[in-house]
Design brief:
The chain has 153 residues and is an all-alpha fold. It has 2 domains: 1-30; 38-147, Cytochrome Bc1 Complex, Chain D, domain 2 (Orthogonal Bundle). The protein has 7 helices and 2 strands. The chain has a two-stranded parallel sheet with strand order 1-2. Helix 5 packs across helix 6 (113-126). The longest helix has 25 residues, at 2-26. The radius of gyration is 24 Å and the shape is globular.
Length: 153
Amino acid sequence: MRATYRRFAAVLLLVVGPALGVAARTAPASPSPRGAGRSVWDSVYTLDQATRGETAYLKTCAKCHQASLAGADESPPLTGGAFLGNWNGQSIGALHDRIRTSMPTDDPGTYDRQLITDVLAYILKVNRFPAGAAELSNMLDSLKEIRIEATKP
């Protein structure tokens, strides 16, 4: 009986083994639990950048979104559960693009990329995401690689 089992196993390996090896080499890797790219939990901005962002925010955004980032009337909050619920799973690039194309509401598209990026660093700080050693890039392709995740994975 053992000899029969061994022959069956050997034949199975000869027939199925190469196919499994090819499938393993050609199949896409399964995504990691966090997915590709980085998240806001990966220290994607600096404290200096967030400080610049706070100054810019108070000059340009606070009139509608309030100094506390809590939002008011037609202006949504930029902190807390409502903000994170709206943006969870989306990229920083999507948020950057939304701000760039729709803010300020009375003159959309007038904020430059660096100002928006600095303000985003401030928003990340207020939402208690960790700061790091490298500034958040103002390049849209780079920002699209960073996911907003409401909770730490």
